[in-house]
Amino acid sequence: MGKDIVDQESKYPEKRKRLWNPEDVYRVLINNKGTDRIEGIKFDMSHSDILKLRPTCFESMPNLRYIKFGRIDIDNDIDIAYLPNELKWLQWKCYPFKSLSLNFNPKNLVVLKLSGPNMEQLWNEDFQDLVNLREIDVSFCDKLRKIPNLLGAINLEILNCKFCESLVELPELPKMLNRLNLSSTGIKEVPFSSDLSNILPNELRYLEWNGYPFKSLPLNFNPKNLVVLNLSWGNMEQLWNEDFEEPSTSKDLTVSFVINCKSLKLLSELPSNLKYLDTRRCISLESVSFTDRNFLSFDGERNYAMIFSNCFSLNQDSVDNIEANAMLQIQFLAKKWASRYDHEFSIDPEPNLLYCFPGNKISADRFEYQSRNSSLSFKIATRGSSGRRLLVFAICLVVHLTDHVSVRNLQFVCEYQLLAASGNDGDGGFKKFKSELILGGIAWDCRGDHVFILCGKDMVKEDQDYEEASFQLYINNKREHFKAKK
Q1: I want to staple 446 with a disulfide (CB 3.0 to 4.6 A). Which of 181, 194, 254, 401 is the partner?
Q2: Number of independent structural domains in the chain
Q3: What is the pLDDT of residue 403?
Q4: Is residue 354 in a domain?
Q5: This prediction's pTM
């Protein structure tokens, strides 16, 4: 309905406030027919031929506030000469020019989203009135050499520079920055006139920097607000100063860390609400510890994974810490699931819990019943007259995946039977259940034996006077089948 109203403003596209019909946009741009009536343009090349844009194609549209362009192919090597200073939203996939206009003042700009191989610089450093700016996304601008001074962008929340391979330095960033992505940039050192702590504000909640070039986060960087941390393929040896408060202590937040750094040696005081940790290939990792806070912050409704595959330098204390943390989480989840068992438990089989670390031993203290193959049976202690009881099963197994390179979409299927005692009504016999845990998107290039600890919400059952349990475990990735050694 809104489009119809705008179309009725005039039969001439250049006299309407907004243009989104590809043919109308094409005619206005190719014939340079823009007017001061136009406030917004949305366009991509899927409906038109190659454009011959003039450097002054927007000069006749001084009130243009919104540009959203898909890929636009141009056949002439030009740079843009004019962008309207009224622009609030500039989004352009495969931006074809080398810069924003040198005379463009971004004082009204709220969102800037550009990608493409031609962009070399943004706006002139003289423009510092950036108070309206909320988001900058220049990902994949691989020729971009510099980000302008952003101290005036006091409300900037998001800066995404991933795959800006020519970007070798950053200015001091606003203190309220919320999300920062510097993955695969050319930044290798901090400028002499700056400090790493100025690049990483303490208010950061999302930090992604694949190829992180420094040995640690700044000593004065407080990670208390972090929700997502991805520092893969860097030179990290230690995360942060141990004196600082643990990340995201709010009960409403869960934290995810991905830290695949070969030189990382220490992970201390990992937060209690860390729901996902991936340290695959941290071959130098020796020490791991967790906070001793209770686990009330984890809501029991999200998948939970602690992956230490190929961390062969882990000392025994760290392995004990990982196992102990797994058991604490299982106990917490069991209580959480039990409290919801009747009214919402059967709706969704998730979440699942997974721990993985190198080793070939299963703790007899933590897993009482053991077997040398993929099947296991044991007696269940009677509940007596204690009333209602829920049974929670957790599985620990040893798997050898060395002969299988980059196993993806690993699936653990546990088929189990519970034998019920015959009651007065004669209702006894086996009841069959099935639990599935699929680990999609992870390349399991585990070398040597690895221990997996698994638990899921569909492995919680109300006790119906069961006397015996038997389990059969299957491991596959739809193409191959694997066997558990224990």
Answers
A1: 401
A2: 1
A3: 63
A4: no
A5: 0.82
